[in-house]
Amino acid sequence: MTPEYWQDACTHLSKRCKVMKKLIKGYPEAQLRTRGDPFQTLARAIVGQQISVKAAQSVWDRTVAVTGKITPKNVLAVTPEQLREAGNSRQKIAYMQDLAAHFADGRIKPRRWHKMEDLDVIAELVEVKGIGRWTAEMFLIFYLMRPNVFPVDDIGLIRAIERHFHDGDRLTKAEVEAYRERWAPWNTVATWYLWRSLDPIPVEY
Questions:
Q1: Do 76 and 102 fall within a single domain?
Q2: What b-and-e string marks burial along 120-130, b requiring 16 or more CB atoms within 10 Å of the CB?
Q3: Distance from C-alpha of 96 to C-alpha of 46, rounded to nearest angstrom
Q4: Alpha helices, DSSP H only, in the chain?
Q5: Other Cβ atoms closer than 10 A to 30
Q6: What whole-number distance in Å separates Cα of residue 97 and Cα of residue 115?
Q7: In angstroms, rounded to a whole number, what is the distance separating the alpha carbons of residues 88 and 22?
Q8: How far apart are the first and last CA of the chain?
Q9: In whole angstroms, how far apart are CA 173 and each of 52, 90, 168?
Q10: Is pLDDT above 80 for 203?
Q11: Which residues have C-beta within 8 Å of that of residue 62, sequence separation ≥ 6?
């Protein structure tokens, strides 16, 4: 499912930013998609922490081969050693299994999140071991499909801004943060196209 706001956001961004206009025209097929499963989205985000999109997909595929469909029950049913053989770090294994336990025993109630503000969802998610603000922001983008998420600490976003707006020069966090206002209220869409400009594989969690 592609969010209803996507085309309106593209029109808005194209009018306000020449770089965005070029990127949007360059990827006409690009659309944000959700997998429709909150546990899978969070587990994918954990697997993808601090590695490339391609590497994350490879580890995920091997993990699926071990567990079958990625569900809380299936993740808890396999051993840490099996998940390690799939390419997951010990730390990420602990995070995934803790997340699975939260889902399995009802400590996490995903249905509530659709009615909550972005910052409230983030505050609840970061209580789970291994879920920091970045992972929570990926959840806002790829499961809840919120339109104005700007993951200021995301390496791909930072590098894309440096490439397209600063000839590759390194930026401080404050300098990256300044772009949030430029693309509001459609930061999610701007971020997606900037990611797409760097990687042949569309980002999905």
A1: yes
A2: ebbebbeebeb
A3: 7
A4: 6-16, 18-26, 38-47, 53-67, 72-77, 80-85, 90-104, 118-125, 133-142, 155-166, 173-177, 179-183, 187-196
A5: 18
A6: 27
A7: 37
A8: 13
A9: 21, 29, 15
A10: no
A11: 85, 86, 87
The amino acid occupying position 58 is S
Contact 32, 142 (CB under 8 A): yes
Looking at per-residue pLDDT, the higher value among 1 and 14 belongs to 14
CB 28 within 8 A of CB 191: no
Q: How many residues does the chain have?
A: 205
- The radius of gyration of the chain's CA atoms, rounded to the nearest angstrom, is 17
Is residue 201 situated within a structural domain? no
**The model scores a pTM over 0.70:** yes
Biggest alpha carbon distance in the chain? Answer: 52
Count structural domains, the chain. 2
Looking at the structure, tell me whether residues 26 and 50 fall in a common domain: no
State whether 44 and 76 are in the same domain: yes
- Residue 25 DSSP class: H
- The percent of residues in the chain predicted with pLDDT above 70, rounded, is 100
Distances (CA, A) of 71 to 37, 43, 65, 139, 172: 9, 9, 13, 16, 39
Q: How far is CA 70 from CA 15, 23, 42, 126, in A?
A: 41, 33, 11, 21
Q: What is residue 114's DSSP assignment? A: G
